[in-house]
């Protein structure tokens, strides 16, 4: 006889769903609207408490259950699902299933492992932003949050955590001009001269120079502010990464390099990232290396950048873990790091 238990879904669903025990996992079927039946997998073995709570975001969108539910089943598809309690449930195949609804009708669900609707919610203290690919889910979430909390809907986002957002039919442009102006004023650089590059050519910094020491608190504050500015200004990423390596043994040379970045920011504060409203989702990645750039330990630097279409969306810059004997080796290590990230994406 099948055992049953209850599990609460994500608050946006605002429903209770029934768990019907299958051979290797639980088939979770939404007891609400039959037109939008939710199928996920919940881990609960023989020894598990039937009232245990689990969370599956739906990103995996796997479903397993009784084998006789499948009209077609490809058992060559083998994988598993990991849950928050570090347990795993085996996925025995992929196929099409037939579910009988309350009124006796049968509902055919095809390709149960394909992605479904998605709602992304970002919360910072009392500020909330969210987006979705389902207009219905979007409106339901807004309604339920308004019923539960005293909230104000300010419609399209225009400013969030120091990032300015301009939305149009052509796409979304994000920048940090107001934040850049704030940094320049804080360090008395609002009237500084402009420079064309954030780092002087062939700049080499060291922990062991004999120049005058500077206020470490002021330097660290400047570096921290510049690091946040790299959220939308990728062209200062290398310079900020360079000065970030000298937080403990810093001198006037390091402060000069840090302030040069402010000279560059002064002339480029209107720059930002534009995410075009297009159907071009081609993933393209670039990698590069700076061989032996660290004169203290002779390690090289790896940098890579990924685009979806024409929009940069993920990037990295860090020292390589080992010393290399040639530019070729350094380039291979950088390319390998780029490939690892591409596979993860």
From TrEMBL:
CDD domains: RNase_HI_RT_Ty1 (cd09272). The keyword Hydrolase applies. Residues 115-200 form the Reverse transcriptase Ty1/copia-type domain. Keywords: Aspartyl protease, Hydrolase, Protease. Residues 53-112 form the Retrovirus-related Pol polyprotein from transposon TNT 1-94-like beta-barrel domain. The keyword Protease applies. Transmembrane segments: none annotated. InterPro entries: DNA/RNA_pol_sf (IPR043502), PolX-like_BBD (IPR054722), RVT_2 (IPR013103). GO terms for molecular function: aspartic-type endopeptidase activity. This is Uncharacterized protein. The lineage of its organism: Eukaryota, Viridiplantae, Streptophyta, Embryophyta, Tracheophyta.
